[in-house]
Amino acid sequence: MKDKIIYIRGVGVIGWPLAGLFLSLKKFLPEIKIAIESYKINAENIYHLDHLSKMGAVLVETNLNEASKWKEFENVQSEKEIRKSSAVVLDCSPPGVAEKRMSEYTKENFPNCKAFIAQGSEHKFGKQLLFPDNTEILENTVDLFFHVSTCNTHTLASILRVFKSIQVKISNVDFVIIRRDADMAKNDPHVTGPLFQFPEGAHGTHHARLLSELFRTVNQSYSVTSSAMTVNSPYMHITRFRIELEKEIRKEEILKSINNDPLLSLTSQVSSNMIFSSGR
């Protein structure tokens, strides 16, 4: 295999920043090339594709995007070439697309690929994966398909991680997720007012179910319920939680646990737009 390629399919809300992240870290990945596939190329996405190309990305040409016809791109390769050298495929396409593609993700089509990874909406796309809570499932695995947990599952798991690190047993957990409606990078319409989400079972909304499914991959279980509502905001989700513990712990222990977790931080800001502007 001449090159080792991370093949990112879909360069939208997820694929675009993901490609940029990998390209910004390329000095740490000298043997890796980043290939990006846009479903179509048009006046709306040409600029960020051009930027990623100038950062060093290889643009993948398909029958639909006809990438070689665009003079802006410095490096274009055929889909057939990229498939041969792909070490990992990250399918960042809109919800439902990756699941439909599972039949084409074979050793015959991708002879050197070690893993196919999709976003959290692709529930049937292999095991759920969330760093660092269940990445031990990657050790000595023969699985090829994984889907990265949703943003809300990341949040809920991180809240539980605070208490797990203190080694206190968790009795019951209840979450309320107040969701933003349209992502800043999308042209989706906003809701006109607060919109409540109906529960899907005794656990409440799907957020509790996905969290429970995540921890089952590492033989852990919690009594978790959740509810959710969507508000007219493009910024960030807010999560209210109530956690019952089997013994009392001190506030200082919680703060220490948060400060010791490199993926968590504290802020004195209380407005989501301020946190959004500094954090995202």
In short:
The protein is α/β, with parallel strands linked by helices.
Oligomer: single chain
Indicate the overall shape.
Answer: globular
Task: Write down the secondary-structure element order.
Answer: EHEHEEHEHEEEHEEHEEHH
How would you characterize the largest beta sheet?
A: 8 strands, parallel
Mean pLDDT: 93
Radius of gyration: 21 Å
Number of helical elements: 8
Q: Based on DSSP secondary structure assignment, what is the total number of beta strands?
A: 12
Spans of at least 5 consecutive residues whose pLDDT stays below 50 are none
Query: Which percent range fits the helix content?
Result: 25-40%
Strand order of the largest sheet: 4-3-2-1-5-6-8-7
Residue fraction in strands: 15-25%
What does this structure look like?
The strands form two sheets. The protein has an eight-stranded parallel beta sheet, with helices on both faces. Strands 10-11-9-12 form a four-stranded mixed beta sheet, covered by helices on one side. It is built from eight helices and twelve strands. The protein has 280 residues and is α/β, with parallel strands linked by helices. Helix 1 (15-24) runs parallel beside helix 2 (46-55) and helix 5 (151-164) crosses helix 6 (206-216).
Describe the protein's topology:
Blueprint: E1 4-9, H1 15-24, E2 32-37, H2 46-55, E3 58-61, E4 76-78, H3 79-85, E5 86-91, H4 97-100, E6 115-118, E7 127-129, E8 145-148, H5 151-164, E9 170-180, E10 195-196, H6 206-216, E11 224-231, E12 238-245, H7 251-260, H8 272-279
Parallel strand pairs: 1-2, 1-5, 2-3, 3-4, 5-6, 6-8, 7-8, 9-11
Antiparallel strand pairs: 9-12, 10-11
Helix pairs in contact: 1-2, 5-6
